[in-house]
Task: structure prediction
Amino acid sequence: MKTSILVCSLIAVLAAAAHIVGGVGAESTDPNLLAFENISGQLRTFNRSGAVDLDNPFFQDLGTNGRRCVTCHQPDAAWTITPDNVRARFVATTGADPIFRSNDGSNCEGVDDINGNRATAYSLLLSKGLIRVGIDVPGDAEFSVLSVDDPYGCGAPLQTVSVYRRPLPSTNLAFLSAVMWDGRESSATTTVVQDLAKQANAATRGHAQAARDLTADECRQIVVFETALFSAQGLDRDAGSLSSQGATGGAVRLSQQPFFIGINDPVGLNPTGAAFNSTAFMLFDAWAGLTSNDRDPYTEIRRSIARGQQIFNTRRFTVQGVNGLNGETFASGVRVPESFNGTCTVCHDSPNVGNHSVKAPLNIGLADASRRTDDLPLYTFVKKTTGETTQTTDPGRAMITGKWADIGKFKGPILRGLAARAPYFHNGSAATPKDVVNFYDERFDIGLTPQEQADLTAFLRAL
Result:
């Protein structure tokens, strides 16, 4: 019965989505589009393979706890989850939806309720859309866990670190350079397609608690489905169609965007040898030349979006203290200075996509103790050779490599479809696009004016 309810509900959601594509613009009549309303307008997903096939293993129950890939990768939430999405499912099922499983959905492993209250046990999932990931410190790590301040008193072994992260979207994967926030499913000798197949199996064995590995054909079908999906904001509530008046926003144009590993890389890792171009986004160039028109309600916000794109591409500020970038020497032989003037596109270099086009996990301070909120644990790590200590809410890439220098490093996500999938960053610490802008403005002392903040926020919402 539960399986039938889930599948019927998904069919209804997808069918409804197929009928709400609207607005003026080049993509609004494409039959392969799904569209979902969100607070900023309308998210659209273009499926390059045609209609969504619900018989694909992505939608099938292949585990033992009722979960499927789609459980944590919902089409209306840009193929991830949002707190609103999760809370609605909690209410509709009285906490019985398969996402509420204590192997990784609850704050503590195996804790399904607290004093009879399931919502308390799953508070991080409900409030920020965070899934718990338990990882043992590698045996050959350069560090060990000295102590943990755990607000939930989970009582896990000291060298088992529980971190809480947002599920990454299972769309726009054709632009990936690394799989997972900490890159744990990627390696130097495999392709992204191979990494995605590995990730699909690991997720099914772990999140869905499957009793067997996926077959090679099941992995292939999941990866083929995922890599055919392209999602982006198609309508903005204030600017209208994001593919009107010469703009090239939306999911269809995104599906046509060229990409290869190293494209537009700023440290000489582009295999074509082409120089880095800080103008990585060109979606709204045509709107920069619009003139004020009192009769067109969209003109002013379209001009704002174009100004925000310009700020993202060209506004220079001091980049320093970024572990993984400043002071690093890359395989190209380029050494990045300890401090330099750069733009947002130094780290968001993939044209019209916004992620890093090579594997480049960075520490911008998101997990620093100074930014800890009282709903996350705080770990104290000690370096074995020197006794040096550091505190973080999530050691990031270091739990995979065992390297002290990798503590706090994460990959940057793809920026398209942002408006549909709040909150942001790996730990959900930014509730809105404006909060994201405020973080970077403060972190890098950019000095944005209120108007520039508004313009940059409008641009991010339009992606």
